[in-house]
Fold this sequence. Notes:
Layout: H1 29-40, H2 46-65, H3 70-83, H4 90-100, H5 103-111, E1 153-161, E2 172-176, E3 197-201, E4 207-213, E5 218-219, H6 224-233, E6 238-239, E7 243-248, E8 255-261, E9 280-281, E10 283-286, H7 289-294, E11 303-311
Parallel strand pairs: 1-11, 8-9
Antiparallel strand pairs: 1-4, 2-3, 2-7, 5-6, 7-8, 10-11
Fe (ii) ion (FE2) binds near residues 125 and 127.
Amino acid sequence: MSVPKRATDVPSWNGILPPSMKLPFIDTPDSVTYNAMKLAELTPDPRMREILVGLVRHMHDFTRETSITTDEWLKGIKFMAAFANQRQPPHIEYMLLLDVFGVSTLVDTINNPPVKNATASDVIGPFFMPDAPDKENKDTIVDDTNGIGKAEYLYFEGRILTTDGQPIPNVSVEVWEVDEEGLYDLQYESRDAPNGRGRFRSRADGTFEFRGVVPSAYPIPLSPPLESLMNAWNRHNMRAAHVHFWVKAPGFRELITQLYPDNNEWVTTDGVFGGKRSLVINLKRVDDKSESEKRGIPGARRSTMLSSTSCC
Ligand SMILES: [Fe+2]
């Protein structure tokens, strides 16, 4: 009789022996939790142990408190499996899942507590791309060769300061935002070149400036599993209008944040729980054509300016 060949992807024993401690048979719900906790407590790496112990405790508490049924357990497994099979890369899907639960923002707020005089942080979101082109101050980040459709021009003037108010020169300020359609460049089928992105450098006095479009609120892209979750939750999937910033300077903590124009109806129910009060900024409408042209706004279009300061 021939021994069947093992397929290479069939899991095999990982070589770890049972622990020497005696554990009870699993006869009750409490003994499942007891044994799972005991095994988690044996995790060699201290940080991994802390995370696994907490995860087991909370997962078991959650399961017990909500009396999850077998059908619901299976539904949950199918829900998670569906995430791995979406058109978007899985890392975007899973990030969005954590985003809509507020977990991404929670991680950010825990890791970046407020610093006096510093601009608050915000989540990076799934639409960052590392290929933003280097730009000169006053350059545009949007391709407006065919106009900007229904959007308005935005002219942003910012200044990078230390928390005690000293300007920081040569700081890398990476910016990204949606285009006039409310879409990031990577949401299009073809993406020949980055659009809506740019990397600027602060001048000697800490200032930087660029041209873009006034951001619009946009819907978080919903894959079928995420859509089913949001609908069951009766929650909208809109993100409040914002512009993303990633500020980096040697010797300083990096700042990843977003700024939200005021009169932003979605900001307090933002789909990913972004939008701290201090990140809401006032846009100043500018109708003066000469002011617009001075800032490189094509034609007689109305420009919109905003100013803000950021510390890193
Ligand atoms: Fe965004």
